[in-house]
Amino acid sequence: DNGAHVPALVIGTGYGGSVAALRLAQAGVDVHMIEMGMAWDTPGSDGKIFCNTTTPDYRAYWLRTKTKAPLSNFLGFPIDKAVPRYTGILDAEEMGGIIVYQGRGVGGGSLVNGGMAVTPKRANFGAVLPTVNADEMYDTYYPRANAGLGVSLIDPAWFESVDCYQFSRVGRKHAQRAGFPFVFVPDVYDWDYMKQEAAGTVPKSAVAGEILYGNNAGKKSLQQTYIAQAKATGKVTISPLHKVTSVSPASGGGYTVVIDQINTTGDTVGTKTVVADKVFFAAGSVGTSKLLVRLKATGALPNLNNEIGKGWGDNGNVMCGRANHMWDATGKVQASIPCGGIDNWDAGGAFAEVAPLPTGIETYASFYLSITKNPNRAEFSYNASTGGVELNWQTAWKAPSIAMAKTIFDKINSKEGTIYRTDLFGTNKIWGDHLTYHPLGGAVLDKATDNYGRLHGYTGLYVIDGALIPGNTSVNPFVTITALAERNIEKIIATDM
Ligand code: FDA
After folding, report:
1. I want to staple 432 with a disulfide (CB 3.0 to 4.6 A). Which of 205, 319, 379, 392 is the partner?
2. pLDDT tens digits, residue range 188-211?
3. What's the whole-model pTM score?
4. Catalytic site residues?
């Protein structure tokens, strides 16, 4: 409520924010979470909370009048279509040279992502978070994060037999024939539920292609895990459709937080001011970076250091498709949850998820999202004339990612006698090099903050999300974001609360 005083305010309800809220509440601290997106707890007129990937409607996109699907074309035809402007679940945020996809709503990215829950190889951890004690992470915080998120592996015997993973088995065959290891990737999807979907005994979600605009069943998003536990403590409240616009020191101590209340077409319908003793920035890499860069530049938080806005990367994301021969059909029905990847990180700098293309028709296509060791890092800066925050990423900076992905797919194509698809990202365009699903950095650990996420320059302000991670995790990032948040909040509760 306007004028309230809260001990701890968390900006955002994604991985970092949910971990902070749960652990603070368990330590006896009252927590208020502010989330610009919707609650996603009420079905629409079709009885479903979320719309299907193949039939995007008003629920699909964050304040857009036309969809902006990651795969923009099919067989040369554009697939985007008009939708009513609404505070939908997926934000395709255009940041100059890159479109950054993000989840909007209570649960953040967990609402829209593939649920792939990957712990980086121990040998690669030093490059991910160089100042963090790896023993502690691998002995304590990664296991804690995996348990909290409900991570598990697909049943390998079921994988071998089920129609909806034919695309993955084809992906594995091609990888192995070219000499690359295929590794199973853990996920937060409830695999027993998916077995029942495939058997036709429960309503279909992943097997019906639900993913990008939400899963109506089966996926354990944060709403089912950390946030459910946090609410059960009775000490956590959440305000959806509220957007934090300012944080500044309050005269009597703590911080004044200004919050816009918005409606479902994105208009501001009210403004509230609260005072918080501690503020946790968990608005995601882009959200946290944009807030901090603007608050520093406009004088609300002038003592933030010069590392604010720096060290941003795209986790080296690049997509591509391959056209298979007719004997390598990938299946009409494809589970929307990927379950395996091709590991060429050490030799070629690429880890490629074998991804579904759940179109409902046989495409003879194999589709991949590669995570690569792209060294390029961008920076956010404040534009005083527009009042906006900009990112200086350039599309050409994806060139190293493409070269790394090619170490896998050129070899597979030459072994199989196949070619790249050129119809998925435009006409005659092979690489999906215009986007990322994995924004990371902008308030990097031990640079913009101390080694536990305490922002330099202000006592009681913390960063606890993907903004802490310097641009790359070598695998899909949310387990690392969660584990780092578990590590940092434990220290903060022990020493600062
Ligand atoms: P996250 O982005 O989750 O949460 C931030 C929250 O803050 C959002 O809910 C946002 O609305 C809110 N917010 C922002 N600004 C605000 C403000 N000013 N006021 C109030 N609220 C504000 N990762 C992975 O490991 N495996 C996978 O399979 C995938 N797949 C995938 C698919 C797609 C389509 C996407 C978009 C992303 C993925 N990811 C993924 C990435 C993963 O989802 C992402 O890394 C995490 O969600 C990031 O967690 P954070 O806690 O940093 O922020």
Report:
1. 319
2. 999 999 999 999 999 999 999 999
3. 0.98
4. 353, 438
